[in-house]
Amino acid sequence: MENVNMWLAVAAKYAGLNIDRKLRQYQLGASLYYFILKIYEHDGISQLELGNYIYLDQSGIARGIQQLVGLGYVNKVKNQQDKRTANLYLTVAGKEIYQKVKQEIDAQNELLLQNIPITERDQFSQNLKSVGETIFNEIQAGTDNP
Description:
Elements: H1 4-23, H2 32-41, E1 45-46, H3 47-54, H4 58-71, E2 74-78, E3 86-90, H5 92-113, H6 121-141
Antiparallel strand pairs: 1-3, 2-3
């Protein structure tokens, strides 16, 4: 069997570099573009909920939100029912950036899937999600298999 770990690492590294390069002009490096996508899809989402969607710890979420607020892409509004939390909304600039981010992500997804037959793409995507969730859950559980 091929070295799955190596090929996942190669794909992740170069997909990340490619999308970072394309979104650099908007100062959306690392995983900040995922924040934009999920906040757009879930207007008013809390930081805690956002972490559940993009598999980042709360300190990473807080840093990312702080950057996006500083860039003028996100508004952070105290939740009136639960003062300990804040809800996240895209600003007008954030909604404009969303359109550009979505376009670049869609183009990259097409590039990444171009060698996968159309009839197998949904299954491939589900399998890849399953792989990601498996390793995420392993890390979250704190288990260490030698």
